[in-house]
Amino acid sequence: MLQHSRPSGDFFAGMRAIFPLVVAVLPIGLVFGAVAATKGLSPLETTLMSALVFAGGSQFVAMDIWTHPASWIGVGFAALLVNIRHVLMSASIGTKMQSFSGVKRYVAMLFLADELWAMAEFRAGATRLTPAWYAGIVTPFYLTWVGSSLTGALLGAFFGNPTVVGLDFAFPAVFIVLVMGFWKGPETGAVLAASGAASVAVHHFVPGVWYIAAGALAGLATALWQHRAREQAA
């Protein structure tokens, strides 16, 4: 007879699972807040951006192209290119949310950051993904991101250039760990190599943030080619 864990137990299990990434996202939020402060955003504006947008990659890209007055079309289009990957992420994790009601599923998608998606995929691969467990990983991660952004904005002058103290490496370090969690051998390496090569090439020759979309499409095309090759060999 199957025994279902209590929601409170699932919630705290999710909090324990996400704790290492909460620690990792703290310096990233501090860096974002400091960068936003150098671009002229107030602590309130920085906090609202993190709370409402909640997408570290697109927020950093927005800061890269931020001007006064801001080009809202340019910033919005850049954010769209950066976050287009969420279409695939939500399609993947959505098939594993059988225990989520319609409303809970839509709310969950609003908090689908890369780290949270990866943790949810790992969980779904091992056991049933529940709303309580998902809330357990979202709550501390979201609050830490928003709180660290505010702190970084308030202490922007103190932090100065984040590259000097190495805080800028926190972002790629987190993604390296996440990628290694999905490593499945040479096929994964081929996808990463294709994505990286396309991103570097487009970044070198094409202005703007098109390199992000190029890397995603190259990785997707490589994965599809591998899948078809396996089907033909079977």
Topology:
Elements: H1 7-38, H2 43-53, H3 56-64, H4 72-83, H5 85-94, H6 102-110, H7 114-126, H8 131-154, H9 156-159, H10 162-165, H11 170-181, H12 186-205, H13 210-233
Helix pairs in contact: 1-3, 1-8, 2-8, 3-4, 5-7, 7-11, 12-13
Count of DSSP H/I helices: 13
Number of strands: 0
Helix content: over 70%
The average pLDDT value, as a whole number, equals: 84
What is the succession of H and E elements?
HHHHHHHHHHHHH
Would you kindly provide a brief summary of this structure?
The protein has 234 residues and is mainly α. The chain has helices spanning 7-38, 43-53, 56-64, 72-83, 85-94, 102-110, 114-126, 131-154, 156-159, 162-165, 170-181, 186-205, 210-233.
Q: Can you describe what's shown?
A:
By secondary structure, this protein is mainly alpha-helical. The protein folds into 2 domains: 7-182, no CATH class; 183-234, no CATH class. The protein is 79% helix and 0% strand. It contains 13 helices and no strands. The chain starts with 6 loop residues before the first helix and ends with a helix. The mean pLDDT is 84.
Quick tags:
single chain; mainly alpha; globular; 2 domains; 234 residues
